[in-house]
Amino acid sequence: MTGPWDDELAELRTRFLREARGRLDDLDRVLEFLARDGADTRALQDLHRGFHGFSGSGTTYGLPVVTALGLEGEKRCAAVGSGPAVASDLTSWREVVVALRREIDSAGTGPVVAAAEPVRGVERPLPSVLVVQEDAAEREGLVRALGQESFAVRAAAGPEAAAASLGARLPDALIVDAAGDQAAAFALVERLRAQPGGDKPVVLVIARHGGVLDRVEAIHCGADGHFTKPIDVNALVRRLRFLLDRESAEAPRILSVEDDRQQAAFLRTVLTSAGCEFRAVDDPARLESELAAFRPDLVLMDVLLPGVSGYDLVRSLRQDERHATLPVIILTTQGELDARIEAARAGGDEHLVKPVSPGLLLATVAARVERGRFLRLLVERDGLTGLLTHTALLERARVVLTKKRRDPSRHAIWVMIDLDRFKAVNDDHGHPTGDQVLVRLAGLLRARLRQADVVGRYGGEEFAVVLEDLTAEDAARLVERLRADFAAIEHRSREGAAFRVSFSAGLAALQDGESVSAWVHAADRALYAAKEAGRNRVVVAPPRAGAATAPSRGTA
To answer: Which of 16, 104, 281, 370 has the maximal Cβ count within 10 Å?
Structure first.
């Protein structure tokens, strides 16, 4: 099988063979240093890394003997350790270098064969959901809950009615109740999957029991998720949104910590061919700054690095709570059990042995990125509204601040939103109804704002939005429309009482040299002015002179 990277790998193979001779010359010079001083620690480390470069790349370019010889050189270096090297060590290393040179000189230019699937899909329109539920009350409740989350929902009273509607247009998601006629429900899922394009929709099955065998049976018929009654609607919506968003999610960002240029070029070729964004860092000292600037979805960590072990770098990552859920794949030429144990103890999520096939690399990266993103969603998203939490919101704001410092011409607006007289809603209609109002506002913000806009629940009945590349005037017009749209929504309590709720908003443009806390504080003061002026209105903060540092609630 072939892959989309074949031409580029062929070019990399040619470059590898051309540069390999110079790298072998470097190994000869290192051996000369060791002949004069067998205890030269720097030379021993350089020799080990030199062999490591060949062992990690040979098979990638159709040269398995080069990999085997590189591994043999590494093994002999490990046996010597920190030295001193004696004459017999030098003789054995020279034999490996000679064999490597002979193999490189005789290498042909055969093709590089690999296979894999791209990591990311294509964007799709706004999500439509087909709910299949025989019980009218449960069907109505689920349709209402999904509608408040800004899904386009249609319903069917059973699998037979749903099957008739599948021919017109396939939904983006199918939620089917299998608690009654399980055979008919599973047959509906199988019928969907058999249609052209039927592999695309997300399928969630609702059942009366949630045992392992029930879940396995649902998976076998083509379901992506399995929920039991009574339904946790928040969990269902969270899973549904994640499964839908993964199709239109931004390209996975992969950061490689690798000092071998050939290996880094190979990783870049394979991963970018599958739609990933790729960045390599060859100096471990730059890892922290690259993590902050690139915000990777996954880290590929080499073990043998200048001045530090990759295992120790992974341990340092795991000590920082910001990177607790960041997937790390450790790449090493060592396939022994001890190496795998060391990778697990350090905190690595996977252990791949170099040279790794493109297919295995992409499959592992795709699986780990998807799981990592879901874990991050659970950590960073508010359980009720599905919006960013307070902490995650401020983290995104700091990224916007960094962009502003790099390019002062950029516009960024902080919008602080607070529901008017929300305590009266809870007092008059109960907290469950109040929660539905919060969900309704969250759904409106999610539906009307751009995908790139940062939207979060700041706390309680307060929400915050970060709008980039809009002036304060344009942002004010946008928020004013949102205010009018939300004020026109009719809410109903569990007892059926109808009522409306409004919100007030304060906007502040990010000033040059301003801190996040000062920026938020300015929007907060504008929100207070809107409340003082009678509520249900939008107020824009005036420009601030200089870089203010006034504290704001919860941002210090």
So the answer is: 16
Q: Which two three-digit tokens encode residue 262?
A: 């050939």
Write out 382-404 in H/E/C secondary structure: CCCCCCECHHHHHHHHHHHHHHH
Q: Examine the pLDDT at 507 and tell me if it is beyond 90.
A: yes
- List the structure tokens of 425: 């809603």
**How far is residue 267's CA from residue 274's CA, in Å, rounded to a whole number?**
11
Sheet with 202-207, side-by-side order of all strands? 152-156, 128-132, 173-177, 202-207, 225-228
Residue scoring higher pLDDT (40 or 149) = 40
Higher pLDDT, 270 or 524: 524
- Distance CA(226)–CA(486), nearest Å, equals 34
pLDDT in tens, 188-219: 888 888 788 787 888 898 888 767 776 777 77
C-alpha to C-alpha distance for 254 and 349, rounded to whole angstroms = 15
Residue 486 dihedral angles phi and psi, to the nearest 5°: -70, -40
Q: 384-417: per-residue pLDDT in tens?
A: 888 999 988 998 898 899 888 888 888 999 999 9
3-state DSSP percent of the chain in helix, strand and coil, to 5:
50, 15, 30
| Residue spans of beta strands (DSSP E) within 287-441 | 298-302, 304-305, 308-309, 328-332, 350-353, 412-419
The values of phi and psi at residue 363, to 5°, are: -65, -40
Mean pLDDT of 141-161: 83
Q: How far is CA 462 from the centre of its chain?
A: 27
Question: What is the C-alpha to C-alpha distance for residues 410 and 239, in angstroms, rounded to an integer?
Answer: 35
Closest of 535, 519, 517 to residue 527, by C-alpha: 535
Q: Which two tokens stand for residue 476?
A: 């004010």
| Averaged pLDDT, 37-61 | 81
User: If you average pLDDT over residues 510-520, what whole number do you get?
Assistant: 93
Residue pair 288/332 in contact by the 8 Å Cβ criterion: no
| Distances 203 to 139, 193, 241 between C-alpha atoms, Å | 16, 10, 12
Report the distance separating Cα 441 and Cα 256, nearest Å.
Answer: 40
Average pLDDT, the chain: 84
- Return the DSSP state at 381: B
Judge if pTM exceeds 0.85.
no
Q: Do residues 53 and 260 touch, judged by C-beta distance below 8 A? A: yes
Above pLDDT 90, what percent of the chain?
A: 26
Q: Which whole-number Å values give the CA distances from 506 to 83, 416, 476, in the listed order?
A: 67, 5, 9
* Sequence-distant (≥ 6) Cβ neighbours of residue 393 within 8 angstroms: 454, 456, 457, 458, 464, 466
Place of tokens 């964004």: 277
For 426, the 3-state DSSP assignment is: helix
Query: Hey, CA dihedral for 9, 12, 17, 18, is it positive or negative?
Result: positive
- Candidates 409, 435, 411, 413; CA nearest to 422 is 435
Q: Is 303 exposed, middle or buried (0-12, 13-18, 19+ CB in 10 A)?
A: buried
CB-based contacts of 114: which residues, under 8 Å, 6+ apart?
1, 2, 3, 5, 6, 9, 270, 357, 358, 359
